[in-house]
Amino acid sequence: MKKLHIQGMSCHHCVMAVGKALGALDGVMNVRVDLETGTATYEETKPVDKKVIAAAIQKAGFEIVE
Q1: C-alpha closest to that of 62 among 27, 24, 15, 28
Q2: What is the distance between the alpha carbons of residues 47 and 57, in angstroms, rounded to a whole number?
Q3: What is the pLDDT of residue 66?
Q4: DSSP label of 14
Q5: What is the pLDDT of residues 38-49, one digit of tens each?
Q6: Residue 23 and residue 17: Cα distance in Å, rounded?
């Protein structure tokens, strides 16, 4: 499982937006987003470039915190 810390989520709609953004990426599956901890976890079926992940999160209106 890969884990991301995501900044900017404040409601269930945010959780859904992040989940949808990650779930739409080729090679990403089993996405789980937790509003309380500000994290998203997912599995990869093939390697996915971290820049692609970051771009999808940013397009949804959020940022990955390293």
Answers
A1: 15
A2: 17
A3: 82
A4: H
A5: 999 999 999 999
A6: 10
